[in-house]
Amino acid sequence: MTSINASEVDKEEYGFVYGDEAVTYEVVRQPHTEGKKRKITIKVHPDCNLIINAPDDALREDIHEAVMKRAKWINDALSNFRTHLENVQPKHYVSGEMQFYLGRRYVLKVVEEPEGISNVKMTRGKLLVTLKRFNEDKQTLIKTLVSKWYKVRAERAFHQRLAELLPQATWVTGIPSFRVLSMAKQWGSCSAKGSLMLNPHLIKAPKECIDYVILHELCHIAEHNHSERFWRLLSSVMPHWKDVKSRLDGMAELYLNE
């Protein structure tokens, strides 16, 4: 199953002190491609995870030096993300709230049209919800309409991505069945019979994150637990899955916020 914020084994973690704060970071090793410049990149993710991508033969001292050169920038980014996370509030489904779709942000706009039809559509950077009339059940109705819209979009997009990714999953025979179901702690799961279950909230994430979850669950058809063989199989079809997972985990609280 693809859990939210699941911990992985064999992490390479270090730390440093900036001001009065101890900061930890994870080093993700990348194979160096011949002819390309060796570089160390630093990413602060929305969940306040600090990830350092480095060549597989980079010295720990060189990595630490690169981190310390950007210590102030790292501290500022962490402070901004912490403030943001503290301000995540349950949605009230009113105009002006933020919604997500395929990794992009959209502003919710609610309008009343007595002669129209209650529906949801995306237009010009907005998620437009039309209601025939406003009443005391307005918030519940908007939430229901938006949830259904996301589910329909999710089913369509997941079908497309599954069809696109299946040729990579050479161990899978046939086309796995799947259903879309809201889950509080998982992005997806795979049954013993190879049926997939995917969280409709995943449609709010970038396409690459959707691909990661689908490939993760397809790997469970061959390896039913998170063994070393499982992670090797996942790495063979998505070498940079750790970066993608970290990106998805970093936005989980916003994507799952209802």
TrEMBL record:
<dbReference type="InterPro" id="IPR053136">
    <property type="entry name" value="UTP_pyrophosphatase-like"/>
</dbReference>
<dbReference type="Pfam" id="PF01863">
    <property type="entry name" value="YgjP-like"/>
</dbReference>
<protein>
    <submittedName>
        <fullName>M48 family metallopeptidase</fullName>
    </submittedName>
</protein>
<feature type="domain" description="YgjP-like metallopeptidase">
    <location>
        <begin position="38"/>
        <end position="249"/>
    </location>
</feature>
<dbReference type="InterPro" id="IPR002725">
    <property type="entry name" value="YgjP-like_metallopeptidase"/>
</dbReference>
